[in-house]
Each structure stands twice: as C-alpha cells, then as structure tokens.
Design goal:
Blueprint (H helix, E strand, L loop, with lengths): L3 E4 L26 E5 L6 H8 L7 E9 L11 E6 L4 H10 L3 E7 L8 H14 L3 E5 H6 L2 H8 L4 E10 L2 H16 L12
Parallel strand pairs: 1-2, 2-3, 4-5, 4-6, 6-7
Antiparallel strand pairs: 3-7
Length: 199
Amino acid sequence: AVDIVLLQRVDLDDDMLPAGRLREPLCTLERADICVLRAEDADLRQRVLWLMRQNDPARVWIIDRSTTLPSPALPDPAARALAFCALGDPQGFFHGLRQAGVNVQKEIHFRDHHVYTQKDIDRLKATAQRWGTQSFVTTEKDSIRLANHLRVELEKESPLLVAGLEVSLRDEAGSIANLESLIVRANASPLQYRPGNVR
C-alpha cells in the first residue's frame, strides 16, 4: 500500500480532536509516502518534508485546483448568487466561485457532512428573498446530499447551479513515476519463503 496524505496550511497549525480537526498528530506524517499540497500552500513543501523525515522533493506533490461551471452556465454565473455548502473548507469553495466569475452575493455554510432538511431549504429560500439573489450555487457533493423533493422545492425559488472542481498535478509525469516506484517497492516482499514455511 502507498500512503498518500492531502494537507492544507491550516492542518499544520491545527489541534487534535476534539479541540481541532486532526485525527492524528503531525508526527505520524513519517508514515506518509506522499503528501499533496495545494498550489497556494506550495511554500510549505520543506516543512512537510521535514515532518515526513524525507529529503526527496518528489514526495510532495503540488496540485492546481479550479472551480468549473456547467457550459453553457444556466443561470448566468454573473447573476447575483446565494452560495451554500457543507464542507470542511467553505471559504475555499466561495473563493473558487468568485475566481470563476460567479457574483456571490451571500454565503451560507453548514457543518461538514451536514444532511439537508426542509428547515434548511426554508432558510435558503428566505435568505435568497431577503438578499434579492437570482440563483443558488452549491458543490457537486452538496447537490448529491439534496433529496430530490428538497431540490425541487429550492428551485421553485431560483435555479440551482452546481459547481465542479478540477484538480491537476503540477508535475504529472514525475508524480506518476514516483508513485509507480513506490508501488513496486511496496509490493516487493522482504520475506523469503522456503517450502513448508508457509502456514
């Protein structure tokens, strides 16, 4: 097995649960084969390598992320939008929408892994009316969490635009070569079995 860990800047200064979001202390990054950083956190590469007890820069992958919209986008992404999500990094989503040209008039963030209810839909509709927004925008992940009847209810107020996320590796060829070498190494058994030694 190859252990790949996705890190954000906030993770390197966070606390363990329940005070923070970390499930394990940072010292366990020594077990990681590869750490993935977003482009905006690329300056943390040396710190992450130190935490991994590695000196090979190929062990830290850098990714570019961009928010995508349906083409043609309906409604017009420049229209005033109410953006909502239930993510661990809501500001990343809202920032990505603005980078993609969406006129985010109002943001609503629910807890990560939130299950949407009729009360949430009522809140979104009331907020849209109060702010005069012309559309709702959410993530693919949140769209799946919306039961069909709730989605229909929401779209009675305004159209719903579902934004996607595209991720690409900065050094795709080098990253794949590095991954292949790690897989080969992981599959090479250090044990030599002799007949009658297998149970």
